Amino acid sequence: MNKRISKKQQNREMARTVNGLVLCYQEMVSEREKRCKELSAKYGVRVELDKDNPLGMPLILPLTEAQRQAEMRRFIAACERLYEQQQAQRG
Questions:
Q1: CB count, 10 Å around CB of 72?
Q2: What is the pTM of this model?
Q3: Which ranges of 1-91 does DSSP label H, i.e. alpha helix?
Q4: Which of 11, 33, 49, 83 is positioned for an S-S bond with 56, CB 3.0–4.6 A?
């Protein structure tokens, strides 16, 4: 009887441990996905997690021509805004 109770307790502890590890892994993946989105926005490249790699290694993928042109337009607009701000401060 005590062996049966002990075995059930071990199984419950193992289930809790596994569930904790699964939650930790999911949190790690979500943080990596968030970081990839931040890097994509910052550097203008497409960064994704490798779905075939259990650790979700980041892949840096080239942008399509349309995406590259859109990023270039955003960059130019930001430069123009900065220039206008500098001119307003001087004038």
A1: 11
A2: 0.51
A3: 2-43, 65-90
A4: 49
